[in-house]
From TrEMBL:
It comes from Tumebacillus lacus. This is Glycosyltransferase family A protein. It holds the Pfam family Glycos_transf_2. Gene3D superfamilies: Spore Coat Polysaccharide Biosynthesis Protein SpsA, Chain A. SUPFAM superfamilies: Nucleotide-diphospho-sugar transferases.
């Protein structure tokens, strides 16, 4: 599934990359757009692309939960999460990720955007340290390194979607924590260096807020693992980022509509 908000100039390439990597049935979740993204998505519909449109912006990662819920309802065995702004040359690596998820029956197949070359950055970058610490807490550091559903294309299985709370799908580190705690099969078997993802540059303010969002999501994941009420606070600081803009109300309404149909 592909979330898209104001990605009219990039969405066509993102869809093409996913299809060239081996997938044909696609879900595009267009939301809160002020450009021609919806028109581009509609022009790509060919019987195997489903367009889900929301006039309001759903907020960061809510579209992935929407798309996953819809795909599960339609009987999907695996769901690929792929951002609508990715236009980098990584078709082959994406194909490897898709093939690996199928071949090894993975419940969570991750992409490694860092490799080992960035190991020294972990001590200086709190976000990378949190990713490392979460994998270490789960006993998966050797297997996953810094791979995390918060960064890069990844795939979840129907088995994972069957039981995971829907709101967890809107906070990627919680997906990792849930999958590992449930004893599901997960691994990082594809590498796409960050520079080759080809994501859009949206400015320093967006970068700072998305970083804070992901830090807060990791803090919630640790709370979940500890059995504590989920919190985004660390040393009295609240890491909100874009979290308060996430429309869980619209996600719940969409889920109810699927149940009714």
């Amino acid at each position: 599934m592909i979330p898209a908000r104001n990605e009219g100039t990039r969405l066509r390439q993102a869809v093409q990359t996913v299809r060239q990597a081996g997938l044909r049935d696609l879900i595009v979740v267009v939301n809160g757009c002020q450009d021609h993204t919806r028109d581009v998505a509609a022009s790509l519909q060919d019987g195997r692309l489903t367009l889900l449109h929301f006039d309001e912006a759903l907020g960061v990662d809510i579209p992935r939960a929407v798309g996953a819920a819809y795909a599960y309802r339609k009987g999907a065995e695996h769901v690929l999460f792929y951002d609508g702004d990715l236009i980098g040359p990584h078709r082959d690596e994406l194909g490897k990720l898709i093939d690996s998820a199928r071949r090894f029956s993975l419940d969570l197949a991750l992409t490694d955007p860092y490799g080992t070359a960035h190991g020294l950055d972990v001590a200086r970058e709190p976000l990378l340290a949190l990713r490392r610490d979460l994998a270490r807490r789960l006993g998966l550091e050797g297997r996953l390194g810094l791979s995390n559903p918060a960064h890069g294309p990844h795939i979840v299985s129907r088995a994972l979607l069957r039981h995971i709370p829907l709101d967890f799908l809107a906070k990627p580190p919680l997906v990792l924590a849930y999958a590992a705690r449930a004893g599901l099969h997960l691994d990082a078997l594809a590498r796409i260096p960050h520079a080759r993802l080809g994501s859009a540059h949206k400015g320093p303010e967006h970068y700072a807020k998305i970083r804070e969002t992901i830090i807060g999501d990791h803090l919630e994941a640790f709370c979940y693992l500890d059995g504590r009420p989920r919190s985004r606070r660390l040393h009295s600081r609240l890491f909100d980022g874009y979290d308060s803009e996430r429309r869980f109300d619209l996600l719940a309404r969409f889920a109810r509509s699927l149940t009714r149909t």
